[in-house]
Automatic annotation (TrEMBL):
GO terms for molecular function: S-adenosylmethionine-dependent methyltransferase activity. Gene3D superfamilies: Vaccinia Virus protein VP39 (3.40.50.150). The lineage of its organism: Bacteria, Bacillati, Actinomycetota, Actinomycetes, Kitasatosporales. Keywords: Methyltransferase, S-adenosyl-L-methionine, Transferase. Residues 22-122 form the Methyltransferase type domain. PANTHER family: METHYLTRANSFERASE, UBIQUINONE BIOSYNTHESIS O-METHYLTRANSFERASE, MITOCHONDRIAL. InterPro entries: Methyltransf_11, SAM-dependent_MTases_sf. The keyword Lipid biosynthesis does not apply. This is Methyltransferase. It comes from Streptomyces mutabilis. GO terms for biological process: methylation. It holds the Pfam family Methyltransf_11. The keyword Transcription does not apply.
Amino acid sequence: MARQLDEQMVGRFPVGKRLRVLDVGMGRGTQALRLARAGHQVTGVERDATMIAAARDALAGQPEGIRERMRILESDGRDTGVHFLPGSFDVVLCHGVLMYVEEPDPLLAGLARMLAPGGLLSLLVRNGDSLALRPGLYGDWAGALAAFDNTEYTDRLGLHVRADRLATLTAKLAGIGAPLHTWYGVRVFTDTASDGTAPPDDLETLLAAEERAGRTDPYRGIAGLLHLCGVRG
């Protein structure tokens, strides 16, 4: 996903431009910190205290210049309008968040308002069109059948969450003024890997295969996650 995001940023903005980045639901700050290291001004928004502590610990170990470029804000992603003026950011990230939001439309509209004209909105969501695949590969036939007509599922932590279908999100992005520019699949081949699985010796080859599949039909359509990139008109 990081490679996909970099591809879109490089293709949209002048080389060397320091971008204003908002990462909503930043978690441990992996992407936010990576982009701060690349020279961008990054604001990370997170409401989970444990995640915020981990992000601050990671940031504290960085050189002063990187620490100055990254700000961490404890807040709900739906409150961006309280903290920032419309059009304040060139890039807005919302990765792995929508599945935990029962009514995502207000959040999406708020994210789009944060974008400057021509700005990039990056969403990472659970693919509602492939929910039957994981239980089917595990031999859970009843679970697979139930998933075909459903966008709700139980994740690996046992939480009852939701998924998004590509067609539905495409329409929503058009409606909030950040129409879909391109989309990728994420975890085409590796969605059944257990959390904490050690990287294989041929990790680079695995990543190359995932990257190729994530941009190639029909493989990207059955990925466990979708990476959608919208552009503010």
